Amino acid sequence: MSVNSNCSVSRRELLRAGTGLAVASAMLWPRLSLAAAASDYEIAPGPGRAFLKGEQGQSTSVWAYNTRIPGPEVRIRQGQPVRIVVENRLEEDTTVHWHGIRLPNAMDGVPGLTQPPIKPGERFVYKFTPPDAGTFWYHPHANSLQQLGRGLAGALIIEEPEPVHVDRDVLWVLADWRLDSDGKIAPGFGNPMEAAMSGRVGNSVTLNGSVPEDQSVRAGERVRLRLINVSLARIMALRFEGHTPVIVAVDGQPCDPHEPKGGRLLLGPAMRLDLVIDMQGESGKRYAVIDDFYDGLAYELTNLAYASQSPLRKNPLNAPLRLPRNPLPVPDLPNAERHEMVLQGGMPSMRDMMGGGKMQGMSRMSGGMAGHGPAIWSINGTSMTGDGHDAEIPPLITLKQGRSHFITMRNETAWWHPMHLHGFSFRVINRNGAPVPHNQWADTVLLAPKDTVDIAFVADNPGDWMLHCHVTDHQTAGLMTVIRVA
């Protein structure tokens, strides 16, 4: 289990290949460094290589930020201005979206909507001051299927002004990959059949860019574990055998501390969970962490491996679990303006194959959609394909700035959809008519087939904002729209 310190990342660390990543010497670009100030970063998307099947296998050609899978961890304090220079070393356009951050519209990273794309060899400077502490991440919003699917993702951690009372702060960036028999990333991005079902689900899962190994822990310690799912389509349901994780934040936003229902942590693409785990296992023993979302395809993600040394403490740490609240405006529900969004499309004849979470999207058809591809999904009967380039499409709805808004999302499809709203965090109010407990806020809400979810927020951030499914095949095939706040 990796420990994330609060120290600045050195130039040498940014240049050094991450765990499980081999980098050719020609790829060690000397300008890829953290600037002198802790709030200044340089990030360069470009080619790299990674051992996605373990150190004993062949390395895989990937796309990476600063040659690292995942990209360098950007870690700053709440309310601290940050300046991030992105230099495009790909052979195609790119942008960077700072997922979950409430920032100015011009910094949101959607090509054709909030900024021009960053051309090969060009730079773009992102500047913002994050108002919220929590676990966030960054990824492209151009050619999203391939750029994210080939490895472009990194963690963005906004620290609380005062340290949280835990022994360690640990990050797990979880990703899956579609690999062929030679360990290469398989072709077929944008396959229409997959796009109409569950998307491009991979056949190999990594933890912090490597094939998961045992995660070392010590009896008696308290760990804050930050989970980020950066997969294109894979939904995860994690169980920690012999342990009782407590959820303290959803999508970076603190909630009432609570144990997951049935001990199962549901994590769709782009979603994050902050957990506090008191390591109460026995010294010298191993406890499995299992992902069992897809029926009949459960697997062991990793193990918590206890050191043989004596426990750090006999009883759990006597410190509060609750995280300090972020300065989110609270919606006025009785006077909120009401809106409805209906998700439609996909392949309804396959719904029985996904009921309960059965796996789909495992074929390796070599064909794929070029450009924006066909519209397979829609929101309120309107489809927007691609990554944001179709910004000439008028906004689906216009929200009055400063007002509270209550949005009902109805999933009329046979498939799961993690719906993400840029620029805002929203309160999750109801699911299928029942109140959602624990005061949960999010920026990405997972809708099961036929689910209806109510969310609410104050539209205090002006601009045109994307709302889309974060199963990336669904997004690029039409399950995306624009909301205007004016």
UniProtKB/TrEMBL annotation:
PROSITE patterns: MULTICOPPER_OXIDASE1, MULTICOPPER_OXIDASE2, TAT. Residues 56-162, 196-291, 394-485 form the Plastocyanin-like domain. This is FtsP/CotA-like multicopper oxidase with cupredoxin domain. InterPro entries: Cu-oxidase-like_N (IPR011707), Cu-oxidase_2nd (IPR001117), Cu-oxidase_C (IPR011706), Cu-oxidase_fam (IPR045087), Cu_oxidase_CS (IPR033138), Cu_oxidase_Cu_BS (IPR002355), Cupredoxin (IPR008972), TAT_signal (IPR006311). It comes from Aminobacter ciceronei. Keywords: Metal-binding, Oxidoreductase. The keyword Methyltransferase does not apply. It holds the Pfam family Cu-oxidase. Coiled coil: none annotated. It comes from the Bacteria. The keyword Metal-binding applies. Gene3D superfamilies: Cupredoxins - blue copper proteins.
